[in-house]
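Changelog-adjacent note: as of this version, every example in the card shows the full chain rather than a window. The one below runs 272 residues end to end.
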Amino acid sequence: MDRYCVFGNPIAHSKSPEIHAAFAAQTGQELTYEKRLAPVDGFAAAVHAFIAEGGKGANVTVPFKLDAVKVAQALTIRARAAGAVNTLHFTEDGIVGDNTDGAGLVADIVNNADVQIIGKRVLLLGAGGAARGVVLPILEHRPAQLVIANRTVATAGALVEQFAALGGEGVVSACGYADIEGAFDLVINATSASLSAELPPVPASVFAPGSLAYDMMYAASPTVFLQFAGQHGARLRDGLGMLVEQAAEAFSLWRGVQPATAGVLQSLRDQL
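Full-length structure tokens:
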């Protein structure tokens, strides 16, 4: 039976085994999927040990997404663009590193929330690893404008330089939080502020009527960011769907079968 796992530290909280078990049952794929706690300074050794045991692929979560770039012998275009790897595929030709986070975010927005990105004004809060991983997939859906706002404008500016040619002239821009102008159809919180129950310093005016506010974090109750957005007329969505959709993308990469996600997402939602 083919073996897969997710590497992280900590890892006990991971829902990935449950998600992939559901995908396997649904699609008739025979596989096992486990959690693996890797030492903070021993990720590469843990990966090679899993391969030696017959592992076929692995997901990668905090804090190893940059380490996984170094372990991979080849990177997909989206992994190279993200500068991080969350999915490893062990092939006859070596270890391939991919990044399914951005595809998962976009799939959740477009397919599950039924919000189209094409022609819309999009505001991305934060310019760290989480933000970097989603810029390319967002631009592939042709927004009218993508503004990346960050405390350190130079960090956001570096992202703009990397992706400007893909978006077309004037589509991608950077600014500080205090310099955000106008209202947006889609506001994505890619900062870690929700982990500490803090609010990114954005004005209420960023939310256009009927806009979608999306927080990559998820919890049983809305995050501070989503509460703030809801008070100003936005529709709300947390990152649980992104988690399920990025897993579906990885599952498809490994098994060549695209699982349905709606039932799995609802099951996880019911457990929160």
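Structural remarks: The chain has a mean pLDDT of 96.
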